[in-house]
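To: structure desk
From: M.T.
Subject: fold request, one chain
Message: Could you run this one when you get a chance? Sequence is below, nothing fancy, just the single chain.
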Amino acid sequence: MTTAFRAVLAFTLLAGFYVLVGTVVTAALVFDVLLVIDFHANALRAAIVLTLAAAALVQALIMVSRRRGGDEPGVAVSREHEPVLWQTVEDLARRVRTAPPDEIRLVPEVNAAVAEDTRFLGLVATRRRMYVGLPLLQTLTVDEMRAVLGHELGHYSGSHTRLGAPVYRGRVSLIATVGHLGRHPIIQKVFAVYAKLYLRISQAVSRRQELEADQHAVAIGGRQAMAQALRKIHHTAIAWDLYTDGYLALTGAGGCRPAAVFGGFYSLLNDPARQAELARLGEQPQETSPYDSHPSLAERLAAIELLPEPEHVPDPRSALTLLRDANVAAHAVEESMWTPKALTELRPASWDELVAEGMYAVRNAGALHDLATAGGQVMGASRPYLDAAFEAIARGRQGELEERLRASGWESEGPVLATVLRLALEAVLIQHGQARWSLSWGGPAKLLYDDGEEAALAEYAAQVAANPAAVTGLRSWLGDQGVPHDYVPPGAEQAVPAPVAPV
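Reply: Done. Structure tokens follow.
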């Protein structure tokens, strides 16, 4: 498929979209004019529907046209700062017979990509950028990284990036248009059908381009290097998702941010238990869709096996050797991940501290506060002290506590009171120095006593919530932990808010 044909295809699809918009707007104008010339009730209804739909279409296009791209991700590295990386990219560009990028950026993503600013529907290029994910440099060898970079430069060589911006703008315009037509289901359906057609065709072209770029990768690094790179990228992407959801998501909780983002990711990747989990996840079959931008891993590996094997000298060193100082580069990329406000207001913390502070903030603090407040409201106390909730349970008023907690937004698959009580008891142990959330790279964090035993309170909390007679034992146990009878959670209001009617 030639570049000219791709340009014609993209232009035709985009033109077809604007023809649809123009048709609706023209129809609205026609009915409006007819209504002025010769008023009819049927014409009035049609004119109103079409005019409102045309207004929604025009509004969507105006919103899309006014959007501006945000700041570029990551950090730009110059030839002076990263001479080896730049020399590698420039050497590979010559091998695939294309111009090198004007800018290389290190990004906090499991990805490598290229982009090109263009004019006139991709026919004229103005500036080229290459994005190299630091997690890839952490996990790939030099051989594998060269193959990946060759793949990306192959997109330049095949002029794949020329149509990237027009195709993206068309996608954004279509999605915005369909979304703005929610009150016009018939017209929305027409544009939704066109959007699906556009996406199917443009994404099919994209998948073909990926296979073409793989040919350049194999020509540079060989079949084994590229195949292994693809497998590692698939594996690393799964690990990065686990890392961001389970660890980086704690950023901000407790007023902290991780002092070593990529150091933590390295620890997760090298944990034996996590490696076994990632291996299992990586073996699960991939779901495919005609709207995918990339072929499946299996399809790419099968296509690579059919390509000729070039002569090359293996280089099994870590891809981090392409950087002058990996620690300096990692720190710069980490700094780029945070907003100026986060850099100023969030304190850099070790992962041990971040997990301890973050888990308490997101899991326990709210439960402790809400249980004490609900107890105070049920018992008519002047202060939200925790023992008021215990007294409510002792008097068989668990239902009222549940109602207060649900009104505060608590939900649970089981009894809400048992869940909140467990989380609150965990909080009390933490507040009194009896337990602490412990970091684990192999799985979820665990709440541990000083002697290393896990504080498993779910069963006990359920027993107390269901049995008023168990409150006496609970109070005695908390007293042994140094919790005073009139304990008020930190940060709780000194006066109990007025009772809230249950929802």
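Reply (cont.): The beta strands are 75-77, 103-107, 112-119, 124-133, 256-258, 347-349, 435-438, 446-449. Let me know if you need anything else for the meeting.
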